[in-house]
Design a protein that fits this description.
single chain, 7-stranded mixed beta sheet, 24% helix
Length: 304
């Protein structure tokens, strides 16, 4: 006979967001069960995250949500009530510099969003950018090109005239450790985690969710099921039969991230910051060992 369990809420996915959702639900007194098909918290797409913390988003709600989270990252151990002696992820508050380009509308909408919420930011001109990053090349290269393009690395017309600096930004040293920190905190307030468990069906009755059934036949009755499946969340939405009114879908993708040595004589690990440049189609941040972590901003030349 299949096992039967009950919960006030079932959270599917124990990545950084799923574990955080489970923590908040359990902290509020709800009997919470967090499921993941992998062997531990943070083993999925979270483990490959570049772990950049930023506050500049295209909508007011998204911007507000990110700024609220910034304070939890800033006071990480206090937020999770972690022992000061235990291993904990570190928030490196480097700030984030975003170049003003034609493709991002010179950041006018972004600036309006952060100004509306009184989030600190600074407009930097060319002089200020080069004071902080004297090795930076401010010539324009758009549109972004692949290495195989004969014009790769050739400047086009004009120069970057300015940027916005967001001081409340940076990156997390270890996203998997951060997730395990949250999972530990969630367990401390009563959340139960079960790993190597996969959802077979999302059960419903009269168009209301009633819980989930796992691939081993275990039935978990719950009035609330939270889909935090990351790249695989569309599959869970399909199991729930709710794709008909979804305007956003997800799919698992692989994206190359390069780790390259900082330029000679540049201590980028200590003095660098998170940067976003839609002119070249690249973002970057400091990395351990005085390396630069660089990734694509998905310009048209980079096929998914």
């Amino acid at each position: 006979m299949a096992a039967k369990l009950t919960a006030d809420a079932v959270v599917i996915g124990a990545g950084i967001i799923g574990s955080a959702v489970a923590f908040e639900l359990a902290k509020a007194g709800r009997k919470t069960l967090c499921l993941d098909r992998l062997p531990a918290a943070g083993y999925g797409s979270t483990s490959s995250s570049c772990a950049i913390i930023r506050v500049h988003y295209s909508t007011i709600p998204g911007t507000a949500f990110a700024y609220d989270g910034y304070f939890d990252w800033l006071n990480w151990q206090a937020y999770l009530n972690l022992s000061p002696k235990g291993p904990a992820a570190q928030f490196h508050k480097t700030g984030c510099l975003v170049m003003k380009t034609r493709s991002n509308g010179d950041l006018e909408k972004i600036a309006a969003n952060v100004a509306a919420l009184n989030i600190p930011f600074e407009h930097w001109d060319q002089k200020k950018i080069l004071e902080r990053l004297p090795n930076l090349d401010l010539r324009c290269y758009a549109p972004a090109k692949r290495l195989t393009d004969p014009d790769f690395g050739a400047a086009t017309e004009g120069e970057i005239q300015g940027a916005i600096f967001f001081p409340t930004a940076g990156f997390i040293s270890d996203p998997q450790l951060a997730t395990q920190n949250i999972a530990k905190a969630a367990q401390a307030v009563g959340c139960r985690f079960e790993f190597n468990r996969e959802v077979a069906t999302i059960d419903r009755q009269a168009n209301r969710v009633t819980g989930v059934t796992l691939t081993d036949g275990t039935v978990i009755a719950s009035p609330v099921v939270v889909n935090v499946g990351g790249p695989h969340s569309s599959r869970l939405n399909a199991l729930a039969g709710v794709l008909h009114d979804m305007t956003i879908s997800t799919r698992a993708l692989r994206q190359e991230v390069a780790h390259v040595p900082a330029p000679s004589g540049v201590d980028f690990q200590s003095t660098g910051l998170v940067m976003s440049d839609s002119d070249t189609g690249v973002y970057c941040r400091p990395e351990q060992g005085n390396f630069v972590l660089a990734g694509s901003e998905d310009p048209p030349c980079d096929a998914h």
